[in-house]
Amino acid sequence: MTTHTIDVISGDGIGQEVVPAATSCVDAACATTGTTIRWRHRDWGSERYRRHGAMMPSDGLDQLRDGDGILLGAVGAPDIPDDVTLWGLLIPIRRTFLQYVNLRPLRILPGVQSPLRNPGRLDMVIVRENCEGEYGEIGGRSYRGRPEEMAVQEAVFTRLGIERVARYAVELAEQRAGRLVSATKSNGIVHTMPFWDQVVEEVAGTAPSVALEKVLVDALAARMVLHPDSVDVIVASNLFGDILSDLAAALAGSIGVAPSANLNPPREFPSMFEPVHGSAPDIAGQGVANPVGQLWASALMLEHLGESQAAAVLMSAFEGALADGTRTRDLGGRASTQEFTQAVLDRIAGGATNPAGRAR
Ligand code: NAI
Ligand code: MG
Q: Which residues of the chain fall below pLDDT 50?
């Protein structure tokens, strides 16, 4: 029997509701394939920050290092600045463990309504660079409070950083439709983006079966709305990937269903799996949060652990529950988090699985 050790950080707000839902469904799915998950629960987040002045212990990263993966809910609290919560937990994990791919698969799940009148076939994966680019610490502010006040923020692009994320995206495109769109802005950002274009092109050139298209990010945003079926795999820098993936999540029907995987592809360090949504303070504590984003992220985690069968069981169980009409409020239904979770557990227990359940 295989056992995987997973660190669980439920975090803030609805993270406290959707993470327990996900761990119970993962346990049930793994039981059908004879796999065990050893959960290591971490009470890290804003509550800890209020008590101890830090989101996680000073040796927190070391505590995660020997695990097989990290399942994260969300962090963020209305009374604490977002840069404290984000840079105190999420970003150090992503960067220390070189989780340089942020993978976000998106498609319209059964029973979910896209806001598009005619979404056609919307089934795409966004591969976002996750360690460098526009999100950096280099910069500063001067002359605070004076008319001369100014801020400078530098973007950092390295050949190694672009190559490794492009390689991941190219290999994914090879496994999918053989089409790769690279988001660029080389007409306005004249140093880093032409470099990005050049390196992505070099990497794609090594894969003759992949057709690469470079598209300006503003035009790409419009195209995702007007012709979502013309896009399959997208590779994008940290900032562009962040924005495009929220757009894609909205097109697919709800931010509550979108998953994300922060991957260290060489598996030198643990990878981290989380929903795209945040802590949703407006609905936290009401028991109405949609657990699908957390469930889908958990299926990506199972796939990463090599447990494809358990991942498929989990995917098809929640897709089946949605198709049956069990839906939370954000999807126009009335089910509570608990009721939806129970419907998923019932389907897993009933063995009503569709082997086609696919996480990405
Ligand atoms: P949010 O994603 O938390 O919420 C946006 C809207 O979507 C809200 O109306 C919320 O009720 C709804 N929503 C989100 N997830 C839902 C779900 N599972 N079921 C039903 N409805 C759902 O984004 P917001 O409000 O901008 O941020 C709230 C906090 O979360 C902030 O502190 C922010 O920094 C943090 N955040 C953290 C992230 C993370 O941990 N990776 C990602 C995004 C935001
Ligand atoms: Mg975002």
A: none
The answer, yes or no, to whether any atom of ligand 1 lies below 6 A from the CB of 45, is no
**Tens of pLDDT, residues 217-274:** 999 999 999 999 999 999 999 999 999 998 999 998 888 999 999 999 999 999 999 9
Confirm whether pTM is higher than 0.90. yes
Domain of 318, in residue numbers? 1-100+256-360
pLDDT of residue 136: 86
* Cα 317 to ligand 1 centre (Å): 24
Return the CA Rg of the chain: 20
Q: For the chain, give me the number of helices (H) and strands (E)?
A: 12, 12
- Is residue 91 within 6 Å of ligand 1 at its C-beta? no
CATH of the domain at 84: 3.40.718.10
Q: Which two structure tokens, joined as six digits, stand for 265?
A: 């592809």
Kindly state whether residue 274 falls inside one of the protein's structural domains.
yes
What does the angle CA 116 – CA 121 – CA 124 come to, to the nearest 5 degrees? Answer: 95
- How many independent structural domains does the chain possess? 2
Q: From atom 6 of ligand 1, which residue's Cα is the shortest distance away?
A: 280
Domain co-membership, 61 together with 81: yes
- Nearest-ligand number for the alpha carbon of 331: 1
Question: Both 63 and 158 in a single domain?
Answer: no
- Is the minimum distance from the CB of 280 to ligand 1 under 6 angstroms? yes
